[in-house]
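It would be a great kindness if you could assist me with a short task in structural biology. The full record is reproduced below for your convenience:
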Amino acid sequence: MTTARRTQRERRDHAESALLNAAAELVVDRGLRALTLARVGERAGYSRGIVTHHFGSKQALLHRLAHATQAGFVPGLSDLPPGLNRLLRLIDGYVGALGEIGVFNRAFLLLWAEAATEAELAPIFRERDDAFRADLRDDVHAGIKDGTIRTDLTPTEVAVAIVGQLRGIGLQRLLDPQAVDTERLRHAVTGYWRRALSPAEV
């Protein structure tokens, strides 16, 4: 039985995936300071030259890693129009996903926490948080427009509060998994935001 040869694009994608996984593992196991192009290549079974070819620099690797660790964290949202339903689905899915937190998500949260004091991380994670808040603002704007979200709320403030809560829950889960029951918490947090955002019934 013959095995079909992979295309150049498939080989490139496979190598990048292996390198990003190795980078995430290094961050989780040894921290940001242990992350070098050479160590990523060694852990993934590639030369430093291959890592440099794919990413060019440690900063570019961190940027790509930040994007990769967020991609698809809560699946199915792209099929939903902006509004309260999508916002609540995101909150529920985010907290639920923390129940089985893998190496990519652990790496993202660890790097996010370090971004407050690490100059090389700060611009990357400011951009990531800004993109997250922008999606949330779109949902709040749409909900206000269609009447499912209170008109007295400020989308920017709601977005900041939600990102702060979700990231905070993630860090607590990372630090003390037994203290954070994500299955119970996902319903409580989603319910809280449903009540906080929905107009009062007349």
Q: What stands out?
A: The two ends are 70 Å apart (CA to CA). The chain has nine helices and no strands.
